[in-house]
Amino acid sequence: DIQMTQSPSFLSASVGERVTLSCRASQNINKYLDWYQQKLGEAPKLLIYNTNNLHTGIPSRFSGSGSGTDYTLTISSLQPEDVATYFCLQRNSWPYTFGAGTKLELK
Amino acid sequence: QVQLKESGPGLVQPSQTLSLTCTVSGFSLTSYSVHWVRQHSGKSLEWMGRMWSDGDTSYNSAFTSRLSISRDTSKSQVFLKMNSLQTEDTGTYYCARNELGAFAYWGQGTLVTVSS
Predict the structure, then answer these.
(1) DSSP letter at A15?
(2) N or C: which end of chain B has fewer CB within 10 A?
(3) Taking residues B59-81, what's their average pLDDT?
């Protein structure tokens, strides 16, 4: 199985700050990488699919990049409603595997 | 409006079988795949399996021997059955609709507790 490693596990940032979350795969996943946001008590929500495609209705402050084994989710200007845990998911190989998540809080 | 809703027993005894239903609306099961994903106590997510739009299934090998996914297209329902449940199977179970390859729409999840 492909292992997905997210860093950092926990991040504290200020409103308006640029935030970068990372996800590293144990092998090349050919950009089949999604990002999901999960707020407390809610189901995950798709933000970005296939590395850099913004899902319908997601604010443009979210963006994704990467290739090969290394991928990044960037929030250009952190908003209070962005407090959540963020998960990456690889869909290049079966079984699909998620990272352990990055918990994002406000400073 | 795309909606998915999981339902199930809530509490299952160890060694018993879990049966969950995902009832969908706003789309046809013959047009979109549906995945099952579980989450242990707010921790990471685990992909369990997929019901393809053509009725085929794919499973995570971690569950293959005890997991079964089926559907009733006339009722717009996808079913998950997993036997030999243990306490480590406790968690929230989600169904999610596939779109553009990703898990674009999720149900609210159903909490399953395995305990005697």
Answers:
(1) T
(2) N
(3) 94
Q: How confident is the model at residue B42 (pLDDT cuts 50, 70, 90)?
A: low
Of B42, B47, B105, the CB nearest to A96: B47
| Amino acid letter, B108 | Q
DSSP secondary structure letters along A41-92 = TS--EEEEETTTEEPTT--TTEEEEEETTEEEEEESS--GGG-EEEEEEE-S
- Residues B80, B50: Cα–Cα separation, whole Å: 10
* Interval B50-63 mean pLDDT: 95
Residue B8 and residue B81 in contact, taking contact as beta carbons nearer than 8 Å: no
Residue B32 per-residue DSSP state? S
Query: Phi, psi at residue A81, to the nearest 5°?
Result: -75, -5
For residue B14, cis peptide bond before it (omega within 30 degrees of 0): no
Closest listed residue to residue B96, CA positions, set A10, A98, A25: A98
> In b/e form, how buried is each residue of B39-62, taking b as 16+ CB within 10 angstroms?
beeeeebbbbbbbeeeeeebbbee
Chain A residues inside the 8 Å CB shell of B94: 43-44
CA A43 – CA B110 distance, rounded (Å) = 10
Mean pLDDT over B66-88 rounds to: 96
Q: Which residues of chain A have pLDDT under 50?
A: none
Q: Which residues of A touch B103 (CB under 8 A)?
A: 34, 36, 44, 46, 89
Tell which residue, B84, B44, B90, B79, has the closest CA to residue B63. Answer: B84
